Each structure stands twice: as structure tokens, then as C-alpha cells.
Amino acid sequence: MYSLRNLLVAGGLLALATTPAMAGGVMDGIRANDSIVCLVNPNSPGFSVPDSQGVFRGFNTDFCRMAAAAILGDAGKADIRGIGFSDSMKTIVAKGAHMSSRSITRTGTRDANPGMRFVVTTFFDGQGFMVPRALGVKSAKELDGATVCAEEGSTTLLNIADWFSDRDISYRVENIADKTARLQAFFSGKCDVMASDRTALNSDRFLASDPAAYVILPEVISNEPLTLLAQPDAALETALYWAFQVMLNADALGVNSGNIDEVMADLANQPKAVQRLFGTDSAAGEMATQIGLPADWSYKIIKQVGNYGEVYERNLGAESAYGLERAGTANALHVDGGLMYPQPIR
Amino acid sequence: MSVLSEEVPFAGDAIVRPPRDGFVRQVRSRLFATKGDTALTLVLAAVIVAFGTFALDWLVIGAAAPWGSAQDCAAARGACWPFVVEKHRLILFGTYPYEEQWRPFLASVLLVGGVGASMLPSFHNRRLLWLWGAASIGFYVLMAGGYLGLESVQPERWNGLPILLMLAIFGLVFAYPLGIGLALARHQSQLPAIRAFAVLYIEIVRGVPMIMVLFLGLFVLPLMMPEGVSLSPLLTTMIALVFFHSAYFAEAVRGGLQAVPDGQFEAANSQGLTYVQKVRLIVLPQALSKSMPEVMNTVLGAYKDTSLVVIIGIHDIMATAKMAFSDPGWQHYGLEAYLLVGVWYLITCWCLSSYSRWLERRTS
Asked: How distant is the Cα of B315 from the closest Cα of chain A, in angstroms?
């Protein structure tokens, strides 16, 4: 009986540790708690990985910080939590978190769930193939008879099956669930091809002893718009959507965290678009009163987080260990041939 | 008589021993007696020297010194100890808020201390219940906060060592009494329905892999909860582990129960003891001490199996070790991270098995 009592005591205590549901207006809740709960992948190099102090850093976490800067005026007030893929969507639906910036692909069936809302695509990814340079393959169409290493139970395998069967190419799959083991199998030559999202392939490449010995093939066989997810709430969705547009507009206008203080000091002589973006008595200021954001929300985002290009280069691009080229991809601004199209703030 | 007594050496200081071989003779007779022996010795010596020099070079000579930097590691041909220095907090406590990491540290010390105290024979009585009751509350208050002016920390941020200790230790602490209950239920004939249930339970749990039980805990247990009650994955995992380990404990304890002679049961019955008195005073003390080696075996196996929770997304010390070498700039040092985790398991398991050897010597 004593054992039972102990069990009950501990069970009761731990049950208290479950996530409490958040009630009332979502934005009111965020302001009342003075923090915004944002879910990320606990281990995704370049996108979200804890640093030596256990603080999550990366491309995705910067959009959590963007939300906190826009709504609470302080990027540090983002409560960033690492969580598994399917759990992250369940948690949003159960109102256990406000938003998720977790490389979740926006799909029709996911969007049909009334308990969560896709807000804005922060990164356009797609599935691709990596092969050893020594294989001499220039296109995925030459991969007839190849052995492909891919993650078990993922959409990756379904996409490969579709793509190869559409082209009558025969292949063999090596299913390896653990990422480290899968990479080991690929680098040791157990499989000829590694299939995954192209960003993942690019960061995995740097785990090889000689990264230059591997190439990523040009084919992109799936569309993966990685999109911010939020609790269904009109004000929160608007705030997140336009906070992201501020980052795109600043990117297009050349305003970044380094030069924004100079720009603000001399705002009257800046181009009209810049004045509308950062002036408190301008379009941005008007939006702030209507959604209930701090009057200088656009300034806070750029000052504390940076514009879209900065965030990209810092975490994934030239300034990072991954060197992922932005120019010529879907993630470039539309003027440079990409899909990032800054919506007008006026 | 007198002649004989003179010839027998005085016991204690002059026992006659065979003459001792010199060192060289010993080596020759033990290692190089035949051609086969000589070949085997030479091969083994070569292997030991080769592996030893490799290990020494990797661990010490070619390694980057702990006070070095990431650049030193890139240049070094051996281990990267600066990685361990840089990442030890992340591996131990994961994403728990940095300034608050004294709390998971204290919580871990509390659990390890609790295990240490439970090993002392003076604690093998009702004090254990108080000890673990207090340890449960202390651990929860330290980790979760929200009381005594401690900042509240969400379970998503509980990572690393305290999670391993919590799942392993609480899992075993609660599974042991449950296992004793199951063993008693199976080792009796008055209540056939209870007995059948115990047999069915034990055989089903032992017949499925632990991974399946973990997935059941993660996905099925929450479905069985009433509307509005949500369990944290940590709690459901712990419950699943308790149910899983209890079946193994039950079989270990049942072995001890079978070793208690029938006469003991009969003697207790003839004294007019109730069932509870009989079990508590006569049967269990004998059965538990007899089942000790098997119970320790279960404990060691279960403790090491706890690292499997990484598969269901619980960030124990294995997962935080993986996080440590996902950081760009430190990506090549997975071996060092896994080595650190391995050393932790080796030390703790060695302590546990030394304890069980000591306990067996003491009780035999």
C-alpha cells in the first residue's frame, strides 16, 4: 500500500507539470504573460540548435524572436521550446503554445485543421539528391539502379517513389531511421544517393571529412514551403504576417540592424517607403494601434532581429558554416528572381 | 607422538609452500610453454600494443588540450577536449535556462544521494518510503519551480542528466513494489483469478519489446485519459517504464519466493499468522535477500535501457549529446560526446554492480 501512496503522490505532482490551456484572446494572453511560446525543432542544424548555454539559435528561432520583438517589444521574451514534429502541431491545437517556427511544410490537409493556422512561408525548400562527386552523375535522371539512403517513414520516401516511377527509373531504398547512421552509410559508400530536403543535404555535406567530394543534384522533386504556424487568432496572425513583411521590406530597402539607427536619426530625408515602414505616425504606426502592437514595432524587429536577408545569411548563408547560396533560389527577393515578395506597408 | 609433533610445523608462520618460480620461469611456463602459446601471446601482445598506442594517441598525445579552442581541434589528429569543456553544461542539462541550471544539478544530486542512502542497510525499512516521498517532492519543486520563489520552468526544457535519472530511478523505485505484488499474486493458489491476471500481465509485458511499451505510453495512454486531462510525455513515459520493469522484477522476486522452503509457510500458518504478517515477517525477508542478484541484474539492464527514450523524443543525456555536436563549428565531435555518455554509464553501472557484490557477500 505504501508503494501505491508514493505512486499517487508522484503522479499527482507530475500531472501538475502538464501544459495548461491558455484561455481568452491569444494576444491578451501573450501580453499578460509577457512572453510568447514558440515551438522549434530541438535539433536541426542551421534552423534551430541549442548553443553551449542551451539557448536555441538558428534561422527558425529568429522568427520566434521576430514575433516577440513585434508584439512585446523585446526579442528576448520569446519562450522557445524544442519539441517533436507531430507533437508541435498537437500542442498548437491544444493551445499549449502560441506559434511554431519548425520547418513545417504547408499542405492542404494540414491547413484544413481548424485548430491551427499557417501564416507565412519563411523558407522555400524542396527535396533533392546528394551524390559523391566521383560518381560523375550530373542529373537525377541518370540514377538508374542506384541505392538511395532515406529516412524511414518520411514523406521523402513517398516523393522518391512518385518521382522515380513517373520516369520508369529503377532504384533500391536503404531505410535507416537514425540520421547519424544514415550519413555514415552514405559516406562509407553503402548507398549511392542520399535523399532529403536540400537544406538538410547541404548541412549534412559538412559532416563528411571532405565536403567537396559530394554534390547536390539540380533536381528539386517536391515543394516544401516551410511556414510559420499559429493558434487561430486574427490579431496574432496579422501581427506575424506583417512582422515578416517588415523584414522583407527592410531587406528590399537595404535597412538592416547595423544601419537602422542612422536611418531613424535622419528619417525625414529617407525615401517615402522607409518613412512609412519606420515612422510612428505612418502606416506602420497606424497598424500598431489597430492590432495592439508597440508603436515602434517595425524598428524593434529590424534592430533586434534584422531583415530577412540578414537572418538568412547569418544562419544559413555566407556568414554561417553552411554557405547556402540565396541568389537564384526561391528564397531570393522577387526582384532577384525569387518568391519573396514584400507586401506594401501603407 | 612427540616425534610427530616436532615435525609438524607450527601453524601460522611456517606453512610449507611449494618453491616459488622466478619471474622468468613463470613467464615462460605461462605465456610461452608451447609454440601455440607463444604465437597466441605474440598476437595478443601486438593487438594490445597497437590498440594501446592508438588510444593513447587519440586520447592524450594527438588530442587538443581541454583549455584549447575550436581551431586547435581542427588541427589536432586526436580527440577534441575543448568540445567537452564547451558543451558539458548543454550535455548535462540541455536547454534548461542557463542561470537556473543549479536546480537540475541539485535535483540530480538529490536523486543520486537518494540512491546512495537507499543502499545503506540502515535505510532498509520504512525510512525508504519517507526518503523517496521527500525525494519525489524535492525533485519536482527544484525542476518545475513555481514554489519558494523559484522561477517556473516548463517540462519541455527538462533535458539531459536529470531526465535520465528521473526516468531510471523513479521508474525502478515504483516498479519494484509493484513487481513484489505481482510476484506474490503469481506465487499463491488461493485466488486463481488474481494469479491468472498476474501470469497474463507478466507474460504479455515480457513478450513485447520495450520500444513498443514506450510507444503505447506515448500515444495510447493519453487517449485513455478523460477529456481535458493532458499528461506530459515525461509522465506517460515514466508510467510505461514502471509497468514494463515491474514484470521483470516480479519474475526476479518469484525466483526468491520459490527458494523459500515450504516448511516456512507451514510454520507461519501453524502460528496462526495472518497472510499479511506471514508475507511481511517471514516470506519476503527471505525471498528478497535470495532474489538480490537477479534484482540487481534487472536494475542494471533497466537503467541502461532508459536511454531508449531518445527514440520517442525525450531529451535524456543521449539526445543532449546529439544536440551538442549539431552546433555548427562543433559538428565533427560526435565520438567525444558519445564517449562522455558512455563513461557516465560505465561509472554508474560499475558502482551498482560493486554494491550488489558487496551486498551478496554481506547476506551470504
From this structure: 9
Task: Please check whether residues A214 and A241 belong to one and the same domain.
Answer: no
Could you tell me the pLDDT band of residue A21, with boundaries at 50, 70 and 90? very low
Which one of A52, A151, A204 would you mutate to disrupt binding with B, by most B Cβ within 10 Å of its Cβ?
A52
Residue B103 CB coordination number (10 Å): 21
Residues A120 and A235 in one domain: yes
Q: Does B231 touch chain A (CB under 8 A)?
A: yes
Cβ within 8 Å of residue A225, ≥6 positions away: A105, A106, A121, A123, A124, A125
Give the residue carrying C-alpha cell 549511392: A192
Among the candidates A179, A204, A222, a domain finishes at: A222
Q: Cα–Cα distance between B206 and A114 in angstroms, integer?
A: 42
Please indicate, yes or no, whether residues A229 and A327 belong to a single structural domain of this protein.
yes
pLDDT of A13 reads 44
Residue A14: list chain B partners with CB under 8 A.
140, 232, 234-235, 238
Residues A235, A106 share a domain: yes
In chain A, the residue whose alpha carbon lies closest to the alpha carbon of B152 is: A17
Range of the structural domain that residue A51 is part of:
20-125+225-336
Exposed/middle/buried for residue B105 (C-beta within 10 Å: 0-12, 13-18, 19+):
middle
Question: A50 — contact with chain B (CB < 8 Å)?
Answer: yes
Q: What is the pLDDT of residue A15?
A: 43
Both A234 and A307 in one domain: the answer is yes
Contact A43 B93 (CB under 8 A): no
Cβ of A13 and B140 within 8 Å? yes
Residue where a domain stops, chosen among A203, A222, A241? A222
Q: Judge whether A76 lies within some domain.
A: yes
Residues 62-91 of B with CB under 8 A from A: 86-87, 89-90
Closest CB from B87, B174, B323 relative to A42: B323
Q: Which of A5, A19, A51, A187 to substitute to test the interface with B, most B CBs within 10 Å?
A: A51
Structural domain includes residue A332: yes
Q: Determine the 3-state secondary structure of B204 from DSSP.
A: helix
Residue A51 at interface with chain B, using a CB cutoff of 8 Å: yes
- What tens digit of pLDDT does each residue of A114-159 get? 999 999 999 999 999 999 998 888 888 888 888 998 876 667 888 8
pLDDT above 90 (res A219)? no
Q: Does residue B121 or residue A120 have the better pLDDT?
A: A120
Q: Do A180 and B132 touch (CB under 8 A)?
A: no
Set out the domains of chain B in order of their start, with CATH numbers.
3-61 (no CATH), 84-363 (1.10.3720.10)
Smallest CA-to-CA distance from A125 within A318, A343, A333, A324 is with A324
* CATH number of the domain residue A141 falls in: 3.40.190.10
In a domain, A214, yes or no: yes
| CB of A139 less than 8 A from some CB of B | no
The HSE-up count of residue A56 (CA atoms within 13 Å, CB side) is 28
Positive or negative: CA dihedral A146, A149, A152, A156: negative
**A236 and A328 share a domain?**
yes
- Asked whether residue A324 is domain-assigned, the answer is yes
How does pLDDT run across A278-295, given as a tens digit for each residue? 987 788 888 898 888 999
What mean pLDDT do residues A3-8 have?
44
**Domains of chain A: total:** 2
DSSP A132: E
State whether B95 and A82 contact (CB < 8 Å).
Answer: yes
Segment 12-31 of chain A within 8 Å of chain B by CB: 13-19
The answer to whether A320 and B328 are in contact (CB under 8 A) is yes
**A155 and A176 inside one domain:** yes
With beta carbons less than 8 A apart as the criterion, state whether B198 and B247 touch. no
> Are residues A268 and A257 part of one domain?
yes
